[in-house]
Write a structure and sequence with these properties.
By secondary structure, the chain is an alpha+beta fold. The protein has four helices and four strands; from the N terminus they run E-H-H-E-E-H-E-H. The chain has one domain: Alpha-Beta Plaits, CATH 3.30.70. The chain has helices at 15-24, 27-32, 52-55, 77-85; strands at 3-9, 34-35, 42-48, 68-72. The protein is elongated.
């Protein structure tokens, strides 16, 4: 199953609301988040999801527009070299 790194930013004024909304999605998900508040105001989580749409469910609706979703996977050194040999 693919992994996704999610970066969700928010303003100082939105900070407590952002934390509350992630907590409302479940304590298990909240415990996976890393926060950099107060500088900058952002949260990160890496999770498994079937696709990007499913991964977006880990982002509160109010903050999805500002969120960045990155698909990530573990690659061996050989896989990396093979991918770059075609460039």
């Amino acid at each position: 199953m693919p992994h996704f790194v999610i970066e969700s930013t928010h303003t100082a004024e939105e900070c407590l609301e952002a934390h509350d909304q992630v907590a409302a999605l479940g304590q298990e998900l909240f415990s996976q988040y890393y926060w950099s508040c107060p500088c900058p105001h952002a949260g990160w989580v890496m999770l498994e999801a079937e696709d990007a749409r499913a991964a977006q469910a880990a982002i509160p609706n109010a903050f999805r527009r500002a969120a960045r979703l990155i698909r990530a996977e573990k690659l061996t050194l050989e896989q990396l070299r093979a991918a770059h040999s075609n460039l």
